[in-house]
Amino acid sequence: MQTIMLTYPHSVVLDELPETVAAIGFFDGVHKGHQKVIQTAVDEAKARQMQSAVITFHPHPSVVLRKDVQHVKYITPLREKQEILKRLGVDRLYVITFDKTLSALEPQDFIDHFIIDLNIKHLVSGFDFSYGHKGRGNVHTIQEHARGMFTFASVGEVKMDGEKISSTRIRELLQNGWVSKANSLLGRPLSVRGIVKEGDKRGRTIGYPTANMDVSNDALLPKVGVYAVNVLYKNEVYEGMASLGYNPTFTEDRKEPIIEVNIFDYSNDLYGEELILEWHSFIRDEEKFDSAAELVKQIEDDERRIRDFFRH
């Protein structure tokens, strides 16, 4: 999959671009609803013998449009989004920089510049897609703005258990630690990638060595607590337990939560290596223990529960 970063105005030459079927949207999470939009575009591209594309935006529009939002954490940071789209069979990814200039574009200018001038012949979106200044363009106006240069289709909302699948709903679930339910809406486990860095090495002294993961500040993490996780490393999958939190038994002044992962039945040095962590089930809240012995007793119980979780 080829990734093309675009700003307004872009300098991509129309004659150099293949005829393309594209899905458009922010697609944070690339959940089951998003996947239906994207798969519709991929299937249509195959039927027309064209390339498929996804057109998305970065950063999140709220960073530009809302003064109270300084930074957004993403269910799927851009790199994760790229990997997922590649697995979905997308040929090209256009990432449009969302800034004040873009937000001020009139709907017709947006369509001319980022759809027609990218040689998009068929466009697919969700039912609630909007574009242009103050979102004045939408699925009801797009045929007019297409000016006969491309066709358009929208995909209706996708529900699970009678409720719309949305990034907002997934964020709410993660804030409550309900990763299993969030995963069912995503259609895959929530994942985060990071480099193993040196920690205080206290885990070794209590019999549970951990890999401390340095993850992107853009990544949305679930509620603080202990989780059953899979660890992906060099094409191998390992079971383990992860503590996301402040380690209050030994530390009182930590400002940001850290991820410490104990990988079951693995003892090699991982410093400097990249791991992918898949969150599978919330086990318990983080606690402060009166002694290391009490903590070890709890960790032993956590391990039993998590091994049992993966067996079943």
TrEMBL record:
<feature type="domain" description="Riboflavin kinase">
    <location>
        <begin position="185"/>
        <end position="311"/>
    </location>
</feature>
<keyword id="KW-0808">Transferase</keyword>
<keyword id="KW-0547">Nucleotide-binding</keyword>
<dbReference type="InterPro" id="IPR023465">
    <property type="entry name" value="Riboflavin_kinase_dom_sf"/>
</dbReference>
<keyword id="KW-0548">Nucleotidyltransferase</keyword>
<dbReference type="InterPro" id="IPR015865">
    <property type="entry name" value="Riboflavin_kinase_bac/euk"/>
</dbReference>
<dbReference type="InterPro" id="IPR014729">
    <property type="entry name" value="Rossmann-like_a/b/a_fold"/>
</dbReference>
<comment type="pathway">
    <text>Cofactor biosynthesis; FMN biosynthesis; FMN from riboflavin (ATP route): step 1/1.</text>
</comment>
<keyword id="KW-0288">FMN</keyword>
<dbReference type="Pfam" id="PF01687">
    <property type="entry name" value="Flavokinase"/>
</dbReference>
<dbReference type="Pfam" id="PF06574">
    <property type="entry name" value="FAD_syn"/>
</dbReference>
<keyword id="KW-0274">FAD</keyword>
<keyword id="KW-0418">Kinase</keyword>
<dbReference type="InterPro" id="IPR002606">
    <property type="entry name" value="Riboflavin_kinase_bac"/>
</dbReference>
<keyword id="KW-0067">ATP-binding</keyword>
<keyword id="KW-0285">Flavoprotein</keyword>
<dbReference type="GO" id="GO:0003919">
    <property type="term" value="F:FMN adenylyltransferase activity"/>
</dbReference>
<comment type="pathway">
    <text>Cofactor biosynthesis; FAD biosynthesis; FAD from FMN: step 1/1.</text>
</comment>
<dbReference type="GO" id="GO:0008531">
    <property type="term" value="F:riboflavin kinase activity"/>
</dbReference>
<dbReference type="InterPro" id="IPR023468">
    <property type="entry name" value="Riboflavin_kinase"/>
</dbReference>
<protein>
    <recommendedName>
        <fullName>Riboflavin biosynthesis protein</fullName>
        <ecNumber>2.7.1.26</ecNumber>
        <ecNumber>2.7.7.2</ecNumber>
    </recommendedName>
</protein>
<comment type="similarity">
    <text>Belongs to the ribF family.</text>
</comment>
<dbReference type="InterPro" id="IPR015864">
    <property type="entry name" value="FAD_synthase"/>
</dbReference>
<keyword id="KW-0511">Multifunctional enzyme</keyword>
